[in-house]
Amino acid sequence: MSAAGSASHIDYLIFHCFIPPELLPDVGTLPSNVKLIDLNTDIPSKENQCGLAKLFTRVTDQRQALETPLDKLIPTLSSQIIYYPYILVEYKPAFGHIFADYLTSYSHWGYSDIDVVFGDMTRWIDSDEWNDYDIVTYGFGDQDKLYLRGQFTFHKNDPKVINQLWRHCKYLSEMDIRYSEKNASERKFESAEGCYSQAVIMRKDIKVKWAVKAFSDVGEGSPVYTQGMYLSLGSAP
Question: Which of 178, 183, 160, 163 is nearest to 66 (CA)?
Answer without folding.
Answer: 178
